[in-house]
Amino acid sequence: MSATPPPTSHATPSFEPGQTPGTAGTAGPTGHRVLLSVVAPAHNEEGNVAALVEEVGRACLGDGRGNAGLTWPDGTRVGQSGFEFIIVDDGSTDSTRARVAALMADGRHPWLRCIAMTKTPPGKGNGQSAAFQAGFAAARGELIATLDADLQNDPADIPAMLELMRQARADMVQGDRSHARKDSIVRRYGSMVGRAFRRWLLGDTIRDTGCSLRIMKREIAVQLPLTFKGMHRFIPVTARHMGYTVVEMRVSHRPRTAGETKYGMGITKRAIPGLVDLFAVRYMRNRRRNVEHAEIGVAQAGSALPKAVVSVRAEAGVVGGAAVGAGR
Q1: Residue 18 DSSP label
Q2: Alpha helices of 27-85 — where are they, by DSSP H?
């Protein structure tokens, strides 16, 4: 496991590192605070969703074989009311949604939720960026983890990522599968070229920005411009551009055993659109402006802002306050 801090310093967030706004998450149906929302977009993954749900449950609740599951900062186990798993059905034409619904109804997964994209092209989905956006908007957790629904990401990595986030006092932990992937020479070369362009145009040093396994503060998730196609590939660098601390961690990578890959290959399907997206993200970065602000009382009018004034991130609609995962 390795943690790589950002190479350059960015704007300091309005709260101390390791803190998240107290109103970032909403209480779950039982009234308890939700520490973590795990979000996975799914398009035609009927052969994977059942195993995925079980693996996420074991990762978060513990498996009795060395993995204690998620804990609050005081060491108390989160339990079934302290996390949720949101599967976003992105226009599936198979039985993905029905299988998730059956798992929700069996009484063993009270933490499982299903969000359905309602305006998708016939036979297709709106893509990962839009599906992540829908999942983030529905999430109740103070922190949000993401992963693919094809079982290539291992949910068992999530507790270690949360621990690294606390130890490094980071705002996001980004997974890195590069050590474990068995890609062809052509694909490895394409990845090297892509990383070089990212460094040149965006200053992006993230090694595996295509890895969907990550954990972040909710306030980051709800600020990401994911209504634009392809923006999910720029989540880590966008977080850094917004002034957040992102560290990397080696994670597992597994071969797909069911279903079909949803990603195209080649110049026209990935390389050219990816280059266009790089220029678009660079444009947005250069035009991004800080909109943090504070309300001033009558007695403070005309005086300098006191250090104790609570600042507001207008994009997220949240106010600074409690520590990450503090309390229950």
Answers
A1: T
A2: 49-61
297, burial (CB in 10 Å: exposed 0-12, middle 13-18, buried 19+): exposed
* Residue for token pair 């039982």: 30
**For residues 182 and 17, what is the distance between their CA atoms, to the nearest angstrom?**
36
Q: Are strands 312-313 and 318-319 parallel, antiparallel or unpaired?
A: antiparallel
pLDDT level of residue 315 (50, 70, 90 thresholds): very low
Give the number of other CB atoms < 10 A from CB of residue 278. Answer: 21
As a whole number of angstroms, the longest Cα–Cα distance in the chain is: 66
Q: Which among 41, 33, 72, 38 is positioned nearest to 54, based on CA atoms?
A: 38
Mean pLDDT for all residues in the chain: 79
Q: How far is CA 321 from the centre of its chain?
A: 21
The two beta strands, 112-116 and 318-319, are: unpaired
pLDDT digits (tens, 9 = 90+) for 93-121: 999 999 999 999 999 999 999 999 999 99
* Contact between residue 142 and residue 218 where contact means Cβ atoms under 8 Å apart: yes
What are the Cα distances from residue 159, in Å, to 67, 88, 138, 243, 259? 8, 22, 22, 25, 27
**Per-residue pLDDT at 236:** 92
Dist CA 69 CA 83 (whole Å)? 11
What residues contact 228, with CB distance under 8 A and at least 6 apart?
129, 280
Break the chain into its structural domains and give their ranges.
36-185+205-261+292-319
- CA–CA separation, 282 vs 305, rounded Å? 32
The count of other CB atoms within 10 Å of the CB of residue 189 is 11
Q: How far is CA 53 from CA 105, 175, 197, 239, in A?
A: 13, 20, 37, 28
Task: Write down how long the chain is.
Answer: 328
CATH class held by domain 36-185+205-261+292-319: alpha beta
